[in-house]
Specification:
The complex is a heterodimer of chains A (428) and B (483).
Chain A: H1 3-7, H2 20-25, H3 32-43, H4 50-57, H5 64-68, H6 75-89, H7 94-106, H8 110-123, H9 127-133, H10 135-143, E1 156-157, E2 165-170, H11 174-178, H12 180-192, E3 195-198, H13 208-211, H14 216-232, E4 237-240, H15 243-250, H16 252-255, H17 260-268, E5 270-273, H18 274-281, E6 292-296, H19 300-303, H20 310-317, E7 322-326, H21 340-343, H22 345-361, E8 366-369, H23 372-389, E9 400-403, H24 404-412, E10 422-423
Parallel strand pairs in A: 2-3, 2-4, 4-5, 6-7, 6-8, 8-9
Antiparallel strand pairs in A: 1-3, 9-10
Helix pairs in contact in A: 9-10, 12-24, 18-20, 22-23
Chain B: H1 3-11, E1 20-21, H2 24-28, E2 44-46, H3 51-64, E3 68-71, E4 88-91, E5 98-102, E6 107-110, H4 116-123, E7 128-129, H5 142-148, H6 155-158, E8 165-171, E9 177-181, H7 189-193, E10 202-209, E11 211-212, E12 216-224, H8 227-239, E13 246-251, H9 252-262, E14 272-280, H10 282-298, E15 303-306, H11 310-321, H12 323-326, E16 333-336, E17 339-340, H13 346-360, E18 363-369, E19 374-381, H14 388-405, H15 424-427, H16 430-443, H17 473-476
Parallel strand pairs in B: 2-4, 3-4
Antiparallel strand pairs in B: 1-2, 5-6, 6-10, 7-11, 8-9, 8-10, 12-14, 12-15, 13-14, 13-18, 16-19, 17-19, 18-19
Helix pairs in contact in B: 1-3, 8-10, 13-14
Chain lengths: 428, 483
């Protein structure tokens, strides 16, 4: 961990109210400035103890503190470095190792994910059993969305009407496997807005999960492969519709900074979140009315890590008839945070409940977010709340979920709002 | 086994395992508050959930003669919550429930760990707010506000915490739960407790006054070539009989820092900016605004902006409120000073600070609540350069001397804490300090409640923990009576 980055923290505490774990537990060592203090202790020679690793692991990496910090502390860099140190120096329990091993051998690989679809669907019924074996397995079973109909995207989709841009599309692992309809909608929206969309068929994982979990070498490997895939596709701009992936791809130059050749290639790649790209491009296609109330959820890796807050709101608000509602405490993470809800299921569940409560309080019909992890997490929490409230009371705890791209797609194609989203409450 | 260890073992009778911190790695995260210059790893940290738990912990401390320190969010800037290595740190960050909101009587009852801003957020929809607004309001706790008698930009018009607290339930240093109310006949003990910096006990429940959100708020940003122009405008505004909600001034260096941190977009080339906020009924604010506008132009303002919306107002304030932490962007380390001077002495004191900068080769950024002469010079230094920290300390101390020379005070709102206790004797005579100690002794005869703070040297019944042996000299000479 870079002592210079640690020194930037002046201990003012402005980060505390935005930190999900501080909000939950009210403890200094589970706050950003407390964790920076832990890092400082390590730099000064204190070894990584179980306690220290535990508090660093408990950080969601939501980066709300980065937004809140008036001193410009680069906590994002710091926690990535700290996680790498923990991975290297800390010996985890065999159970922890097994679960982590499984997650990192599964999620970044689409084919393996595809193979897991049926077992995951079955695992829902086995949840109580899995929960007893290991809470992480239970969480996984609870979060897994129902198997989706696979969508095969062609390698190139031509712009409708005059071409205004050519872009590449990152299809993502979880997004691609569990939410293929989001990628399909993204491609349609881009095409309708006048973009040629290139979808490199053999793109792998972008490395976000590895990067955000301190698995440095693995992250670099995935980063290089992704860069190479888009170079081959000859696109200057890559559009990403999953917040976590976009944020890690924007960090490629930093991730690969020790390999100047790759860092340069990384810097040449222009990465944009879908909403960011569409706002920069400006609207061309006609927006048809979409009478639906929408609660927009800020994915941390979009709002905090990429600073993209106004663009998705601007796009949604521009749809005639759409009623956009704000969620209270929007800056606080929903608890999904990449792999967090798998490795820290209890804290994640508390945060998920907190978020679902505030989402439902908006009374909106549709929850919109730009990250598959958030969608699964909040949907699962809403489902829990519905079960707790007794599912007989129809309407209570029922909210449909969709991605920004799907909402835009429905408006651009003049589809009814009823066509949008899965019902989180029913979930099968 | 040390006394502290014996006490720690008994804490499990009061608190569950999660609420007692003894692991050294964890303890070190509590080694300082917002003032990082002073650090001490606490002997043990407790995170109680109720007044009863606090009282029980304090009774244990009393029984074993172990000192204790209360801490809220740990944002204080005078080291008031600096822990004791041989003591217990009682942290109220889990006591953050708003217990009651009573709009008809304009009051709210909150636990000490509730943040200042959380109160306003809870009542904003109903047209009310909690008036004191320290710059750290989104995180600083009400318990800490009470201990430090915190102010904020708007205390020019609305007063400090003491003007907005109606009742306090507290745990006395011998572990009794008592209630102090503004309606209590006799001595104003509530007034004595507020601002006592944790030396008279720990607040466990605070009843605050809610104020009506003003009908109109107008925020004006005036840019001047130099700080003198701004100073002239401040004096003229107050001289004209206008009491703005706030008048804040920042000098060029502070502006530079704020721009770097939050891109607040203040007018380019400004040597000083003045933020003037007027609030109240439309007619009054309109009239006052015309006056302020005229006065600022006469004093040499080259640009005057008026916030047209809540967003624009927030943008103006963002620069000011983030200024302290923002200085981290232009300097590796800095000391936040807090002093008061009579408004009319502002130009002389600022000229004095300029001379100090030249003499020591140390940069000072100035941020002030100009309306009431409360200065916050930020003394910048590089802690990697040997000796510069000491130089900065010296400049910081000399600034306080300047304040005292001009009839001011060594603290406006950050408190004395551990940081300024050594300056107390520059302001007060021995007799003054002895008298203050008598008040202290009345509440805390064993000197266990936040010892080592406020007072310059261990003396009288105060600062050395443990039961005193023999008769107190003041008692012996007949000057005081032991309670």
């Amino acid at each position: 961990m870079d002592p210079e980055l640690i020194k930037d923290c002046v201990h003012c505490g402005f980060c505390l109210p935005t930190c999900p774990t501080y909000v939950l537990w009210g403890e200094e060592m589970d706050s950003p400035r407390g964790r920076i203090q832990l890092m400082d202790q390590h730099v000064q020679g204190v070894p990584v103890t179980d306690v220290m690793a535990g508090h660093l692991d408990a950080c969601l990496g939501c980066m709300a503190c980065v937004t809140a910090c008036p001193s410009g502390v680069q906590y994002d860099r710091l926690i990535e470095q700290a996680r790498a140190v923990v991975e290297e120096e800390h010996v985890r329990t065999p159970q922890e190792r097994a679960i982590r091993g499984m997650v990192f051998a599964l999620f970044p690989y689409r084919r393996r994910l595809r193979a897991m679809r049926l077992p995951m669907a079955l695992s829902r019924r086995m949840r109580p059993f899995l929960d007893r074996v290991n809470p992480s397995l239970g969480a996984m079973a609870e979060l897994a969305p129902p198997p989706a109909t696979p969508v095969r995207l062609p390698p190139l989709v031509r712009a409708r009407g005059p071409r205004r841009a050519t872009v590449g599309l990152l299809t993502g692992c979880v997004q691609g496997e569990f939410f293929p309809q989001v990628n399909a909608a993204t491609v349609r929206v881009l095409a309708l807005e006048g973009c040629d969309v290139v979808i490199p068929p053999r793109q792998g994982c972008c490395g976000a999960l590895s990067l955000h979990s301190g698995r440095d070498a693995e992250a670099r490997k995935f980063a290089k492969r992704t860069i190479a895939a888009f170079e081959r596709a000859r696109v200057g701009t890559v559009v990403v519709n999953a917040a976590g992936c976009g944020s890690s791809m924007k960090d490629y130059a930093e991730v690969l900074k020790d390999e100047p050749g790759w860092a340069k290639r990384a810097a040449a790649l222009r990465v944009r979140d879908l909403s960011e790209f569409l706002v920069e491009l400006g609207p061309a296609a006609e927006r048809h009315p979409l009478p639906v109330s929408v609660a927009y959820h800020d994915a941390c890796h979009l709002a905090h890590a990429q600073g993209v807050r106004s663009q998705p709101r601007e796009l949604l608000a521009a749809i005639p008839g759409l009623d956009l509602r704000e969620i209270a405490e929007s800056a606080i993470c929903c608890g999904s945070a990449g792999t967090y809800n798998l490795f820290q299921p209890e804290a994640a569940r508390e945060l998920g409940d907190r978020k679902a409560e505030r989402v439902l309080a908006t009374g909106a019909e549709l929850l919109v977010s730009a990250n598959p992890g958030c969608t699964m997490q909040i949907a699962a929490a809403a489902r829990r709340m519905q079960i707790a409230a007794g599912s007989r009371r129809a309407g209570k705890g029922e909210i449909r979920v969709a991605h920004t791209a799907e909402v835009l797609d429905a408006s651009l194609r003049g589809r009814p709002p009823g066509s949008l989203g899965q019902v989180a409450g029913s979930g099968r | 086994m040390s006394t502290l260890q014996r006490l720690t073992e008994r804490l499990s009778e009061i608190l569950d395992q999660d609420s007692v911190i003894t692991d050294p790695v964890r303890l070190r995260t509590y080694d300082c508050d917002g003032l990082t210059y002073h650090r001490a790893t606490p002997g043990v940290v407790v995170l109680p959930d109720s007044a009863e738990q606090i009282a029980a912990v304090v009774r244990l401390c009393d029984e074993y003669g172990v000192p204790f320190v209360a801490r809220g969010s740990g944002t204080g800037l005078s080291g008031g919550a600096l822990p004791r290595t041989d003591g217990v740190l009682i942290v109220t960050s889990r006591m953050r429930r708003i217990l009651e909101i009573d709009i008809p009587n304009r009051r709210a009852v909150v636990e000490p760990g509730v943040t200042n801003l959380a109160i306003t957020e809870a009542v904003r929809d109903q047209g009310y707010y909690y008036a004191p607004d320290p710059s750290s309001q989104q995180i600083c706790s009400i318990g800490g506000n009470v201990a430090e008698n915190s102010g904020g930009a708007h205390c020019l018009k609305y007063g400090f915490t003491v003007n907005h607290v109606l009742e306090i339930e507290l745990v006395t240093p011998d572990g009794e739960i008592v209630c102090l109310s503004e309606h209590d006949p006799g001595y104003d003990l509530l007034g004595a407790f507020i601002g006592s910096e944790g030396t008279l006990g720990i607040a466990t429940k605070v009843t605050v006054r809610l104020s009506r959100t003003p009908e109109t708020v107008t925020t004006v940003l005036a840019a001047f070539d130099d700080i003198e122009g701004g100073g002239r405008a401040v004096s003229a505004i107050i001289g004209a009989g206008i009491v703005p909600a706030a008048i804040e001034m920042m000098d060029a260096l502070a502006i530079e820092a704020a721009e770097a941190a939050v891109s607040c977009g203040y007018p380019e080339g400004a040597g000083a900016v003045l933020v003037v906020e007027l609030d109240g009924p439309h007619a009054e604010v309109d009239h006052q605004f015309a006056e302020v506008d005229r006065i600022c132009r006469e004093a040499g303002a080259f640009e005057i902006r008026v916030a047209a919306s809540a967003e624009e107002r927030a943008a103006i304030w963002r620069g000011r409120k983030s200024a302290f932490a923002a200085v981290g962007r232009i300097s590796p380390a800095y000391i936040v000073q807090d002093g008061v001077v009579p408004r009319t002495s502002l130009p002389e004191v600022l000229a004095g600070i300029d001379r100090l900068q030249e003499e020591f080769g140390i940069r000072v950024a100035n941020v002030f609540h100009a309306g009431d002469g409360n200065l916050h010079p930020l003394v910048l230094f590089d802690d990697a350069v040997p000796g510069q920290g000491e130089q900065a300390e010296a400049v910081s101390g000399r600034i306080l001397d300047l304040c005292i020379e001009h009839g001011g005070s060594i603290t406006g709102e950050h408190g004395v804490g551990v940081d300024k206790s050594r300056y107390m004797s520059r302001m007060f005579s021995e007799e003054d300090l002895d008298t203050m100690q008598l008040v202290r002794c009345a509440f805390d005869p064993k000197g266990l409640s936040n010892p080592g703070k406020v007072f310059p040297t261990p003396r009288l019944c105060g600062e050395v923990p443990g039961v005193r042996k023999g008769v107190h000299p003041l008692v012996e000479s007949g000057l005081a009576e032991q309670f």
